[in-house]
Amino acid sequence: MTxxxxxxxxxxxxxxxxxxxxxxxxxxxxxxxxxxxxxxxRVHEALEQLYRDLQHQKVTSLEELLTYLRTQWTENWTxxxxxxxxEYTAENYLRMAEKYVADYYRRYAPFSxxxxxxxxxxxxxxxxxxxxxxxxxxxxxxxxxxDGCYEIHDYKTGRLSAPQTLHSxxxxxxxxxxxxxQYPDVRHITLIWHxxxxxxxxxxxxxxxxxxxxxxxxxxxIDRIEAEERYVAxxxxxxxxxxxxxxxxxxxxxxxxxxxxxxYKADSGVQLVNKYAEVRAKxxxxxxxxxxxxxxxxxxxxxxxxxxxxxxxFGSTNKVRVTATDRFVFPAKRTKERAALEKLLQQYxxxxxxxxxxxxxxxxxLSEKRWDPDVCEALRRYVTVEQSKRLHLSKIKEQ
Length: 399
Ligand code: SF4
Fold this sequence. Notes:
The chain is α/β, with parallel strands linked by helices. It is 49% helix and 13% strand.
């Protein structure tokens, strides 16, 4: 039985192909850590050390804490740590880490807001109590306030989230489910995010109803992952931080031809795409020219027919017939008027007579496995899967 984690679920949602490389094929890569992840780990370690010392009645000074951070940074740093943004150096990132820790320290010293119960503590979550949907995670800091409420603290070293997105954040809400079952007598739990780069604290909580909805959504997502067969790649901004980029089918050709100028020149794929782009550009230009010419001529023929009061205009070997038909214009899709029209047709019992089966919507439901397996299975008798391939030409972003 697979035990899931928030990052495992998130990886699947962001790119099923990356999920496959990481969790199914367990592909090992040379450089697995980006400088952002390295910085995150060192900052987490420093804050863990701060609270661990406090648990042992030792108040660490800011200078001691920064020394600890720098030592951990130096001892763990290797040339394998990947700096994606080439305009910055490792030193810049170390300065950032120092600032995050120092801001945090000054904001919360002498750290008496709450009592630490657990640090970097594993939490296990059983979504339906059957053991079939299990997740695990690590809580950065679990604390208890003087009035007996619990706090789940999470340190973020990345970008700032909008407050409304925190209310739908899955990670800490899942941890809340775990804490609730581990400490059944807890009265209230607050979820607290520390956005260290912005010296900002934000919080939220969840009702029992919201937690139940989250359980159901997460179980449905796990069902989707377990039924997945294709693991389609979703290339996007996160590719630059993906450790599998050199072997991913979306990028491996670029890596191959960039190996040397000779490889680039000799590659027939490069030549084909260059030619294809050139021909498509010419085709586009010619199409645009033809389109304009066609519109201009059609307008002129219509004007001629109207002026001469005729329906057919003769050329040397061709003729053009002008016909006029009335066309009904309906409200556009997804407008209030369109909804009212559909409602009216329904009232008169006429909707079924004019409604058409939306096969692309059915295809989408089948491919996303949105319906029960027996419904999908029954439909499969009438549906065959054909693979079609299309070419999408686009400019390469500056690397
Ligand atoms: S490089 Fe991009 S598309 Fe390829 S696996 Fe990684 S995230 Fe997915």
